[in-house]
């Protein structure tokens, strides 16, 4: 980075309409970086205007989208996603997807921004929620697996970047053998041991955008938070 | 902008990775599944049980008695719905034994919405819990609103893959429920009255007892644990993190957006609304206003806007010894 581009501090917003936003805040506060990170809980257009980047937390995607619309944030968030780095975890990942299956009756509002299709509650109800070790690529100490916490998690059904879209980089996969077997909504004719099955993708980056279907903020491992700042936020500022 | 903007200062975060962290006991047995390549995952861990409650924070969970009400709740922004046969106000008015709902009705609600569905079972009735787990619901409320099935024992909630929420009036009761496996606590309040006074009392008790415990030394904590009949290790952890070790919602008597914001400012993580919505003049509008109030609980200007013109609130009852249906909060041991 050029010295003239160096920023002493960056402001990261966390969409605080509903869900586990405090957990993300705690993780960001513990990061030790050269830059100072200001954290803003985003509930109004004024809050969003301060932010260099945004995290959309886990929660209920239908609730978050409705509250965003009622707070006059929906259009502003769509513009923000087009211009600045955004990371969506679980419900946030659903909101960042280009298309979603398993939406509520009548469909639901999305922000879009990432060229993926996801399926809500892809593993089933809460009794199918699980924890599993994940292989990661590009994180600090990537030899060490990341502890993935999947709670009523979405499943990536396909990657559909058009030729002009930034390339998609897979950051983490779930072992193919742990994919749900009892989901009628997911085609079962796919070889479930195929390591390239898109359904095994649980974390991916498309330029300044990061999507995780699980919850790094529920662990004590800050490597995904550091990755977001290092690979998505800092490059967008230079 | 030099300090983090934290409007929710009253509520410290739930400890990270509850269930895995050192200090927080791993309470639940886990069912493991091992893949063909030897990779294994754990289903129904305490981490995913308390984790779902963490995802519900800042949200409103609404009582519904059929699929149509569940859809109204989902459209109004509920983060989950609670399926039950009659809302508490009707249980109060009609009397008789209140039980688990018809599984057919619960299944219709599960099919109608995409948000988590919870169901109530009677205190101590572990077979009702087995039945609603088999239906595939997302959370069980072992609730004092239904007629208790056991006047001494609560359900051993560790034995289930589905997580449980339980009511509590004070810190000792909350920690007893957590030690039995509850992954989520709510105030009891006085359900079906539209009167928030008991929920306020319960939340204030829990908060003041936590503040008291947080300045105690170890000897004092041993004595205090005995005094409030709480397991020592959970009391010690609560004193360390200065909040309940699981998510804590308000419930019982919440009828207006202002009631919901009051409970949030008193340190609750979210709100259950029972009779308050579908016993009001305009349920969809009131439900949406309460959802907004829980998000913007610290912004009186927004609270004023959303409280306007909501139609009739539910009729409130005075809580005294003559209360029809009795005082439900006294159930639970």
TrEMBL record, chain A:
<comment type="similarity">
    <text>Belongs to the glutaminase PdxT/SNO family.</text>
</comment>
<protein>
    <recommendedName>
        <fullName>glutaminase</fullName>
        <ecNumber>3.5.1.2</ecNumber>
    </recommendedName>
</protein>
<keyword id="KW-0456">Lyase</keyword>
<dbReference type="InterPro" id="IPR002161">
    <property type="entry name" value="PdxT/SNO"/>
</dbReference>
<dbReference type="InterPro" id="IPR029062">
    <property type="entry name" value="Class_I_gatase-like"/>
</dbReference>
<keyword id="KW-0315">Glutamine amidotransferase</keyword>
<dbReference type="Pfam" id="PF01174">
    <property type="entry name" value="SNO"/>
</dbReference>
<dbReference type="InterPro" id="IPR021196">
    <property type="entry name" value="PdxT/SNO_CS"/>
</dbReference>
<keyword id="KW-0378">Hydrolase</keyword>
From TrEMBL, chain B:
<keyword id="KW-0456">Lyase</keyword>
<feature type="region of interest" description="Disordered">
    <location>
        <begin position="1"/>
        <end position="43"/>
    </location>
</feature>
<feature type="compositionally biased region" description="Polar residues">
    <location>
        <begin position="18"/>
        <end position="43"/>
    </location>
</feature>
<protein>
    <recommendedName>
        <fullName>pyridoxal 5'-phosphate synthase (glutamine hydrolyzing)</fullName>
        <ecNumber>4.3.3.6</ecNumber>
    </recommendedName>
</protein>
<comment type="similarity">
    <text>Belongs to the PdxS/SNZ family.</text>
</comment>
<keyword id="KW-0663">Pyridoxal phosphate</keyword>
<feature type="domain" description="PdxS/SNZ N-terminal">
    <location>
        <begin position="46"/>
        <end position="251"/>
    </location>
</feature>
<dbReference type="Pfam" id="PF01680">
    <property type="entry name" value="SOR_SNZ"/>
</dbReference>
<comment type="pathway">
    <text>Cofactor biosynthesis; pyridoxal 5'-phosphate biosynthesis.</text>
</comment>
<feature type="compositionally biased region" description="Low complexity">
    <location>
        <begin position="1"/>
        <end position="11"/>
    </location>
</feature>
<keyword id="KW-0704">Schiff base</keyword>
<dbReference type="InterPro" id="IPR011060">
    <property type="entry name" value="RibuloseP-bd_barrel"/>
</dbReference>
<dbReference type="InterPro" id="IPR013785">
    <property type="entry name" value="Aldolase_TIM"/>
</dbReference>
<dbReference type="InterPro" id="IPR001852">
    <property type="entry name" value="PdxS/SNZ"/>
</dbReference>
<dbReference type="InterPro" id="IPR033755">
    <property type="entry name" value="PdxS/SNZ_N"/>
</dbReference>
């Amino acid at each position: 980075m050029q010295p003239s581009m160096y920023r002493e501090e960056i402001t990261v917003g966390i969409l605080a309409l509903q869900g586990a936003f405090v957990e993300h805040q705690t993780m960001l506060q513990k990061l030790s970086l050269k830059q100072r990170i200001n954290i803003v809980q985003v509930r109004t257009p004024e809050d969003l205007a301060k932010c260099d980047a945004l995290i959309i937390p886990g929660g209920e995607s239908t609730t978050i989208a409705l509250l965003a619309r009622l707070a006059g944030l929906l259009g502003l968030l769509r513009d923000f996603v087009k211009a600045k780095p955004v990371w969506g975890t679980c419900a946030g990942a659903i909101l960042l997807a280009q298309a979603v299956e398993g939406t509520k009756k009548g469909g639901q509002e999305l922000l879009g921004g990432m060229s993926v299709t996801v399926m809500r509650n892809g593993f089933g109800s809460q009794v199918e929620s699980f924890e599993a070790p994940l292989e990661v690529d590009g994180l600090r100490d990537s030899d060490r697996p990341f502890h993935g916490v999947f709670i009523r998690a979405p499943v990536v059904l396909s990657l559909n970047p058009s030729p002009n879209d930034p390339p998609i980089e897979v950051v983490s996969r779930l072992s193919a053998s742990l994919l749900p077997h009892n989901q009628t909504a997911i085609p079962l004719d796919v070889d479930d041991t195929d390591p390239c099955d898109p359904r095994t993708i649980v974390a991916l980056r498309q330029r300044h955008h990061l999507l995780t279907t699980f919850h790094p903020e529920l662990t004590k491992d800050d490597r995904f938070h550091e990755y977001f700042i290092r690979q998505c936020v800092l490059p967008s500022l230079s | 902008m030099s300090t983090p903007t934290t409007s929710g200062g009253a509520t410290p975060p739930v400890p990270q990775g509850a269930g895995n962290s050192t200090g927080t006991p791993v309470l639940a047995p886990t069912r493991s599944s091992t893949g063909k390549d030897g990779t294994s995952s754990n289903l129904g861990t305490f981490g995913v049980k308390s984790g779902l409650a963490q995802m519900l924070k800042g949200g409103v969970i609404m009582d519904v008695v059929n699929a149509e009400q569940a859809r109204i709740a989902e459209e109004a922004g509920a983060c989950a719905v609670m399926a039950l046969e009659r809302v508490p106000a009707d249980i109060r008015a009609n009397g008789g034994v209140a039980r688990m709902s018809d599984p057919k009705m619960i299944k219709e609600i599960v099919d109608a919405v995409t948000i988590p569905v919870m169901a109530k079972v009677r205190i101590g009735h572990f077979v009702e819990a087995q039945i609603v787990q088999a239906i595939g619901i997302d959370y069980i409320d072992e609730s004092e609103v239904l007629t208790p099935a056991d006047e001494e024992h609560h359900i051993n909630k560790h034995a289930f893959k589905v997580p449980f929420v339980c009511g509590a009036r004070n810190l000792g009761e909350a920690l007893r429920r957590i030690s039995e496996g509850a992954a989520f606590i709510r105030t009891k309040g006085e359900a079906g009255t539209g009167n928030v006074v008991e929920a306020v009392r319960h939340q204030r008790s829990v908060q003041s007892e936590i503040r008291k415990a947080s300045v105690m030394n170890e000897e004092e904590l041993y004595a205090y644990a005995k005094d409030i009949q709480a397991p020592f290790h959970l009391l010690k952890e609560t004193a360390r993190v200065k909040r309940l070790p699981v998510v804590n919602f308000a419930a019982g008597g919440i009828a207006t957006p202002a009631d919901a914001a009051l409970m949030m400012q008193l340190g609750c993580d979210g709100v259950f609304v029972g009779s308050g919505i579908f016993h009001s003049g305009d349920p969809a509008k009131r439900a949406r206003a309460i959802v907004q109030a829980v998000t913007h609980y610290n912004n009186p200007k927004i609270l004023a806007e959303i409280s306007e013109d909501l139609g009739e609130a539910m009729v409130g009852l005075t809580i005294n010894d003559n209360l029809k249906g009795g005082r439900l909060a006294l159930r639970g041991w």
